[in-house]
C-alpha cells in the first residue's frame, strides 16, 4: 500500500488529507484508512438518536471514503472520548484513557502492528504528538501509531498533520510543516463534497473553515525525522 491514514474518528480523514488521498488515487496509487472509533461521543445535531450515532457516523464515513476514492477502509469500535462539556443533542462515550500512554490500551498498538504487517504501507499520515487540537483521542492515536511503526521495524515514512501555524492554546508540541501541498481546484471541489458527507459534524466543519480556511487548499505535514528544506510534494515518499 502506498499511503495509509490512521485516525481515531470519522471525519479526521478529510480535513487535513482529503485532497492528498484523492490525488494519490487519481495517480494510480493505493490508499487506505484505519479509523479506530465510530465517533459515538459527538453531536447528533438532531439527525439521529444519541444511541444511533455510532452507526450514523459510520455511514457518513463510508460515503466520505467513496468520494475520497480510498481503496481500503477499516473501521473499529474502540470507545470515543466524551466531550469536555456535554451539550444537548450529544452522546456520551467512554473514551480513551491516555494518562499512561500506549500502555493503557496495548491491544490497539498490537492491532496496528498487525495491520502494518499485513498492509505494508510505504507512508502513514496520523496526528502529531499534541493531537493538533489536544483531543485525547488524537494524542493517544499518535502514540499508538508511533509505537506500532517502531515495533514493525519497517522503513515507513511517518507524516503528522501539521497546521501552518499552531493555535495559541495548542502551541506546545506543535511541529512545523516539512511538506506543503497545494490542492488543485478540481480536487478541492471533491474534498469539500467529502467533508459534506459528515453531516453530524457540520459545526466542526464550519469551525475548521473559520480557523483553518487555508488548509482547505493547502495540506501540510511534518515528516518525522526530516530536517531538510520544506518540500511541496508528498507523493514522492510513497513510491518504490
TrEMBL record:
Which InterPro entries does the entry mention?
A: GlcNAc_PI_deacetylase-related, LmbE-like_dom_sf
Question: From the UniProt record, which GO molecular function terms apply?
Answer: hydrolase activity, acting on carbon-nitrogen (but not peptide) bonds, in linear amides
One Pfam family it belongs to: PIG-L
Instruction: Please report the organism this UniProt entry assigns to the protein.
Output: Allomeiothermus silvanus (strain ATCC 700542 / DSM 9946 / NBRC 106475 / NCIMB 13440 / VI-R2)
Could you identify this protein by its name?
A: LmbE family protein
Amino acid at each position: 500500500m502506498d499511503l495509509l491514514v490512521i485516525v481515531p474518528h470519522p471525519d479526521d480523514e478529510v480535513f487535513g488529507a482529503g485532497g492528498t488521498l484523492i490525488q494519490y488515487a487519481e495517480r494510480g496509487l493505493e490508499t487506505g484508512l484505519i479509523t479506530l472509533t465510530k465517533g459515538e461521543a459527538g453531536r447528533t445535531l438532531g439527525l439521529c438518536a444519541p444511541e444511533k450515532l455510532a452507526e450514523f457516523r459510520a455511514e457518513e464515513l463510508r460515503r466520505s471514503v467513496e468520494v475520497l476514492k480510498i481503496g481500503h477502509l477499516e473501521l473499529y469500535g474502540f470507545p470515543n472520548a466524551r466531550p469536555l462539556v456535554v451539550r444537548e443533542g450529544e452522546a456520551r462515550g467512554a473514551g480513551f484513557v491516555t494518562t499512561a500512554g500506549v500502555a493503557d490500551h496495548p491491544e490497539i498498538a498490537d492491532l496496528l502492528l498487525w495491520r502494518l504487517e499485513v498492509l505494508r504501507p510505504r507512508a502513514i499520515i496520523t496526528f502529531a504528538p499534541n493531537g493538533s487540537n489536544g483531543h485525547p483521542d488524537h494524542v493517544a492515536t499518535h502514540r499508538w501509531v508511533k509505537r506500532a511503526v517502531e515495533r514493525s521495524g519497517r522503513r515507513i515514512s511517518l507524516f503528522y498533520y501539521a497546521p501552518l501555524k499552531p493555535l495559541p492554546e495548542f502551541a506546545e508540541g506543535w511541529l512545523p510543516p516539512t511538506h506543503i501541498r497545494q490542492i488543485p481546484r478540481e480536487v478541492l471541489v471533491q474534498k469539500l463534497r467529502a467533508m459534506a458527507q459528515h453531516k453530524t459534524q457540520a459545526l466542526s466543519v464550519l469551525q475548521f473553515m473559520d480557523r483553518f480556511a487555508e488548509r482547505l487548499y493547502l495540506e501540510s505535514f511534518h515528516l518525522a525525522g526530516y530536517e531538510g528544506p520544506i518540500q511541496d510534494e508528498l507523493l514522492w515518499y510513497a513510491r518504490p
